[in-house]
Design goal:
Blueprint lengths: L1 H14 L8 H10 L5 H13 L2 H21 L9 E5 L5 E6 L5 E6 L5 E9 L2 E5 L5 E6 L3
Antiparallel strand pairs: 1-2, 2-3, 3-4, 4-5, 5-6
Helix pairs in contact: 2-4
Length: 145
């Protein structure tokens, strides 16, 4: 019985080794730890979560076995919705993006003079579409595989 379980686990590790996901649960936990206060408190909590295997459970069980597998098969990680990105260049132009629960991405581009454009990015297999606020196709890009 034990050999059968070990064999199944080993086979699963080999078969799912290409399933590298975003590790959303681990990243959210790690980011939360960075917001607790000063570096001493962050460090103490970090070591406690490594000693009591909170990081290990998040990374290997929750992310590795469940969420990254869901992301591999569906293309979207259930915990990754709400992830955001923001950057401003040297000229004052900025871009802000938020991943939506349905797998799309809402993007707001702000020019240095204050003009704004809102777009929604959708991806189907190897095609990425940019839609304006009314849902009209603005651009489309085909990703070569």
């Amino acid at each position: 019985m034990k050999k059968g379980i070990a064999t199944l686990l080993a086979a699963g590790m080999i078969v799912l080794s290409g399933c590298y996901g975003s590790n959303a649960c681990f990243n959210k936990l790690h980011d939360w730890n960075g917001t607790l206060g000063n570096k001493w408190l962050n460090s103490i909590v970090h070591f406690l979560m490594m000693w009591i295997p909170v990081y290990g459970i998040c990374l290997f069980l929750v992310d590795g076995l469940v969420l990254n597998t869901v992301e591999f098969w569906t293309g979207s990680n259930p915990l990754a919705s709400g992830d955001s990105y923001h950057e401003t260049d040297a000229q004052g132009n900025s871009i802000a993006a938020v991943k939506n629960a349905d797998g799309t991405m809402s993007v707001e581009v702000t020019a240095a003079n204050g003009e704004k454009a809102n777009l929604t990015l959708q991806r189907d297999e190897n095609v990425v579409r940019a839609l304006d606020a009314e849902g009209n196709l603005v651009a489309q890009y085909e990703i070569e595989k």
